[in-house]
Write a structure and sequence with these properties.
Radius of gyration: 29 Å
Number of domains: 3
Oligomer: single chain
Membrane topology: Single-pass type I membrane protein
Strand content: under 5%
Number of strands: 2
Largest sheet: 2 strands, parallel
Main location: membrane
Subcellular location: Membrane
Protein name: Non-specific serine/threonine protein kinase
Order of helices and strands: EEHH
Structural class: mainly alpha
InterPro entries: LRR_dom_sf, RLP23-like
Shape: elongated
Mean pLDDT: 80
Strand order of the largest sheet: 1-2
Length: 126
């Protein structure tokens, strides 16, 4: 919920919520009246200060991002190794790849050389 950015009104009163109120985006704009009746809530804008590790929201939210980062890293490494293994064992694919890279390098070199020549001519340098 802390990712919401276009929420104009919210009333979470008397819902038996507990833990630390998230901060950021819209949550920083609400006053304490939004959370009336939730005696186990703490943090801004309520006067009760969170002590210790009573916040399930904070640890749960961060672990989702850590899990996503870990999954992305594992997927990247597995796919990279798959590509390297295919290149290692398939000589025709390896040759095609390096020919493509070589042709791309030549095209980029020509484009850069032509642009440099145009700029030199434009600014009068010889």
């Amino acid at each position: 919920m802390s990712g919401l950015t276009y929420l104009s009104r919210m009333n979470l009163s008397y819902n038996n919520l507990s833990g630390k109120i998230p901060t950021g985006n819209q949550f920083d704009t609400y006053d304490a009246s939004v959370y009336i009746g939730n005696i186990d809530l703490c943090g801004f804008p309520l006067p009760s200060i969170c002590t210790g590790n009573t916040s399930n929201q904070g640890t749960h939210g961060n672990s989702n991002y850590r899990d996503l980062d870990l999954a992305m890293a594992i997927g990247f490494v597995i796919n990279l190794w798959w590509i390297f293994c295919v290149m290692l064992f398939k000589k025709s694919w390896r040759s095609a790849y390096f020919m493509f890279v070589d042709e791309l390098h030549e095209k980029i070199y020509v484009i850069v050389a032509v642009r440099c020549a145009i700029l030199k001519r434009k600014f009068g340098k010889k």
